[in-house]
Amino acid sequence: MRGELEAELILSQPPPGGHAALERLLPGLAEEALSRSLGKGATGRVVSWTLEGDRLTLTLTADNSRAHQALLALARRLREELGRREKIGVRSLRAIRYRVGFDVPEPPTGPVTLPVPHELRFDGTAATLDLLDLDEEALRDNWSDRAVALVDEKVRRQHYRGKEQYWKLLSQSPQRELTFHEDPTEAMLRRNWLKNGPTKGKWYLGPLPAHLLRTMERIAVEEVLRPLGFEEVIQPHHDSFDILLRTGHLEGLPGEFYYVTEPKSRDPADWERFTDLVKITRKVPEGELAQLVSPPVAVSCYAQCPTTYWWLSGRTLAQENLPLKIFDRAAISNRYESGGRHGLERVDEFHRIEPVYLGTPEQLLELRKQLLARYAHVFDRILELEWRTAWVTPFYMAQSGEVGVEDETQRVKGTIDFEAYLPYRGPRDTAEWLEFQNLSIVGDKYTRAFTIKAQKGELWSGCTGIGLERWLTAFLAQRGLDPTGWPEGFRKYAGELPREIKFL
Ligand code: ATP
Ligand code: ZN
Ligand code: MG
């Protein structure tokens, strides 16, 4: 990586000694700033500079990515020295052009765009990025590094486009004789067990499916979480943007959130025109409403673990609490699934228990084993499902070797998907199975992002999302709606069922 920075400093007034005065000052300060900021082994220099009145422009090069840090250091020293000697300040500092040269892994296959003023050229895998008009804050905030990382990411994505995530079978339950072949949502609809909700992708569950969903919840809590020492927390339902910035969700999934807005005012007087319009038109005055609410201030829960990391942020966990094992089932998840919506299995609002765990790498690997064993007990002996597990890795992570996939000893950080066979989708070897939950160890990604530490040693974390609608759909798709087809273990848990409601 190499950088060339064309910068402009506006001084509070022209230096009395003019060019000659600066001539005595600048080269020394530049050398000092460059050697301190560029780091060992790197070289750089001020190639040229000119002073016109109060405007100092200079060009600085470096053979690494820290030219902007050298510039900031030089500006700081200039501020000190000009202030002390001449009582002159530096009013503003900006990069007119910051040229960074770097290599991408493969030549791009299409245009690469950036949302800030720039010029970008490729010669094979050699990229030249000119960032234009960066102010001091952007320089300080390392926009240049992030822009380079983004170009790299976008080029990689062009090559992975369309490629699936890496999937490797880990375990498979015995095949079961399954006689039910309907889509369970359709079957439930016919029997009036549930109704498509009043808004997108949401369902009203009548007493029967509600009871079954809560039975699934009890099974998960009593058969998996309590025996392993997980304790319940109750977390808020809205996630702040700050949390999502830290987890990376905001850049990863902005099109899947439900956004929360607030009324700008709760004074009825401010709402008078709105309420009057409602009274007269009996319609929602949408334009009026848009004026009266804030831009989004938060999102409705997407996953529960980010808020748990927020809860622990900045804390050091005592040895005696590790591994920390907690779960939340209070926050209800909302996702804008759009075209993917299907039945009760892919909905915009779902109920999930999300256990989160923090501990040493060894503790989490041991806990993963225990969780897998408890889950297997539930799926084999209570729900008697046909299910399998797979090691799944986003394609780019598998490619970059970030997460091992083939060798069992490399499968440390990463995600295990649990999938159930849905007979209504066709033969087991060709139909898509349903991911009904997963289990991840994410290493120190979030403990680092939220500065959560252990009393001693490394602190890792992970989570496992138990999707209750998915458990229920998987179960009913295999076993049908008739309780006589349900395994004894589940029937015992379910106890007496609510009566079906007959509509006339
Ligand atoms: P999918 O690949 O099916 O979209 P995901 O990878 O988005 O799932 P995660 O974000 O890992 O799912 O969420 C964890 C769990 O939450 C899933 O295993 C599933 O049980 C549940 N879940 C996720 N999205 C939905 C949804 N739209 N409807 C019902 N349950 C869901
Ligand atoms: Zn999570
Ligand atoms: Mg999804």
Summarize the structure.
The chain is of the alpha+beta class and about 500 residues long. About 35% of the residues lie in helices and about 25% in strands. A hairpin with a 2-residue loop joins β2 and β3.
Notes on the protein architecture:
The structure is a single chain. The protein is α+β, with helices and mostly antiparallel strands and 504 residues long. It folds into three domains: 2-160, Alpha-Beta Plaits (2-Layer Sandwich), CATH 3.30.70; 167-261 and 302-494, BirA Bifunctional Protein, domain 2; 262-295, no CATH class. The chain is 35% helix and 26% strand. α1 packs across α2. The longest helix has 22 residues, at 361-382. The mean pLDDT is 94. The structure holds adenosine-5'-triphosphate, zinc ion and magnesium ion. The site of zinc ion has 5 residues, from loops.
- The number of helical runs is 16
Number of separate domains: 3
Count of beta strands: 24
Query: What are the low-pLDDT stretches, counting only 5+ consecutive residues below 50?
Result: none
Main sheet, how many strands, which sense, barrel? 9 strands, mixed
Essential attributes:
504 residues; alpha+beta; Alpha-Beta Plaits; 3 domains; 9-stranded mixed beta sheet; elongated; binds adenosine-5'-triphosphate; binds zinc ion; binds magnesium ion
List the helices and strands and how they pair.
Blueprint: E1 2-11, H1 18-38, E2 44-52, E3 55-62, H2 67-86, E4 90-103, E5 118-123, E6 126-135, H3 136-140, H4 143-160, E7 166-172, H5 184-190, E8 194-196, E9 203-205, H6 207-225, E10 231-233, E11 238-240, H7 241-247, H8 249-252, E12 259-260, H9 272-281, H10 286-292, E13 298-300, H11 305-312, E14 316-317, E15 324-328, E16 333-334, E17 349-350, E18 352-359, H12 361-382, E19 387-393, H13 395-399, E20 414-420, E21 434-443, H14 445-449, E22 453-454, E23 460-463, E24 466-467, H15 468-479, H16 488-494
Parallel strand pairs: 10-15, 14-22
Antiparallel strand pairs: 1-3, 1-4, 2-3, 4-6, 5-6, 7-19, 8-9, 11-13, 12-13, 15-18, 16-17, 18-23, 18-24, 19-20, 20-21, 21-23
Helix pairs in contact: 1-2, 6-12, 6-15
The structure holds adenosine-5'-triphosphate (ATP), zinc ion (ZN) and magnesium ion (MG).
